[in-house]
Design brief:
about 190 residues; alpha+beta; 4 helices; 9 strands; about 25% helix
Length: about 190
């Protein structure tokens, strides 16, 4: 019976979230911290992000605090220093991370943010970028903590910096090859 109630609550949460307005912003990670959850089925994280670019007039602050919930200890967005974060407002008007959706952002050039979709298999619609070396040392450290099954550096790089967008240089560095402007990545989501 308890499993049935949990499944029902998940379905109801998905219905509520799917009908909510989605707010998106490019954010720089300040902190992601696990906090006590009211629900034993979900892990709760308090996230603090500096807003670098907002795609909605609702996000006016320079810093956004929001909660995210997951039943696995795999909050992949926290691996990247920058990401497009998609949030909704709960009944209290607080921002909540929608199903931990995110889009990695890795480069700012000429005032524009660039990133990629992890699920994208081919970079056909992506722009070639001049070789840009990206330090991934902090990303590797974070990935090792939240996804301990990735024992080898190679697995972390392959999972979070896929070869269709990046070229491996060494364990701490990749070169960006193909990226898209953040505005284009947002359009694909909505």
């Amino acid at each position: 019976m308890k499993k049935f109630i949990n499944v029902l609550m998940i379905l109801l949460a998905n219905i509520v979230y799917s009908q909510s307005k989605i707010y998106a912003f490019v954010g720089k990670k300040i902190s992601v911290e696990r906090v006590k959850s009211d629900d034993s089925f979900y892990l709760k994280y308090k996230n603090i992000y500096k807003v670098e670019q907002s795609f909605d007039n609702e996000i006016k602050a320079d810093t956004v605090v929001f909660n995210s919930f997951t039943h696995m200890n795999q909050i992949h967005y926290s691996i990247y220093d920058y990401a497009i974060i998609y949030v909704v407002k709960n009944d209290k008007g607080d921002f909540v991370h929608k199903r931990t959706y995110f889009t990695p952002i890795v480069l700012k050039e000429n005032g524009k943010w660039y990133g990629f979709e992890l699920n994208e298999k081919k970079p056909e619609n992506y722009l070639p970028v001049k070789p840009y070396k990206l330090c991934i040392k902090n990303s590797r450290k974070t990935a090792k903590v939240i996804i301990p099954k990735f024992k080898k550096q190679k697995h972390i790089v392959e999972a979070f910096y896929p070869s269709q967008f990046f070229e491996y240089v060494n364990k701490n560095t990749v070169k960006a090859r193909f990226l898209q402007p953040a505005e284009n990545l947002i359009k694909q989501k909505f």
